[in-house]
Design a protein that fits this description.
single chain; 197 residues; alpha+beta; Pnp Oxidase, Chain A; 7-stranded antiparallel beta sheet; 5 helices; 9 strands; globular; NADH-dep_flavin_reductase; Flavin_Rdtase-like_dom
Length: 197
């Protein structure tokens, strides 16, 4: 891309240059637990003793309802070899299957599910939420955690998209297109309601 290229293709090419870690988010409320692959996670504080995170969760997912009800969640940082957890938590609905079946799962101090065999995890308490139409961006205080080892290889989005089996990549693409259509309608409705001139 040259410096003068503009438009949708240039925007998408620039966004593809980002290679975020793949995070798995879990939550629980009213004796129900859920989890999903979280596509939007960002550090939101430079104050070491006041860590904060922002996560964006699409409203159509059951796990969004659990976070909204409980005000708590755990973010799990995945290792490069944990693509199967993406299939389990990102490609099927909690409404249809117990995503936690046969996994070693503990409880965080605040009662959220914690997967034992991950690179690291952060427990978070919601401080605020911003409705953006297609999703809610939750600002959360980080209250607890377990760090990854210094030499561990983390699963990143581009690594997932290049190393996943062909059938998994095809299903991911299909689901992204479906979710994108849902999100497009929600964003359009939100913009129509919030634009002022």
């Amino acid at each position: 891309m040259t410096s003068h290229e503009t438009g949708d293709a240039a925007v998408q090419q620039t966004l593809r240059a980002l290679d975020p870690e793949v995070w798995l988010l879990t939550s629980a409320a009213d004796h129900e637990r859920g989890g999903l692959i979280c596509t939007s996670v960002m550090n939101a504080s430079i104050v070491p003793d006041m860590p904060r995170i922002v996560v964006g969760l699409a409203r159509q997912h059951r796990t969004w309802q659990l976070v909204d009800a409980s005000g708590r969640f755990v973010l799990h940082l995945l290792r490069a070899d944990q693509i199967e957890l993406v299939r389990r938590f990102g490609m099927q609905s909690q409404r249809d299957v117990d995503k936690f079946a046969e996994l070693e799962v503990g409880r965080s101090p605040e009662g959220c599910p914690v997967l034992r065999d991950v690179a690291g995890w952060l427990e978070c308490r919601v401080e605020s939420g911003l409705d953006a139409g297609d999703r809610t961006h939750f600002l959360a205080e980080v209250t607890n955690g377990s760090p990854p080892a210094a030499d561990i290889a983390l699963l990143r989005m581009q690594g997932l998209l290049t190393t996943a089996p062909d059938e998994m990549r095809a299903e991911l693409k299909r689901q992204l297109e479906r979710d994108g259509a849902i999100d497009r309608q929600a964003i359009s409705a939100w913009r129509a309601a919030h634009r002022t001139g």
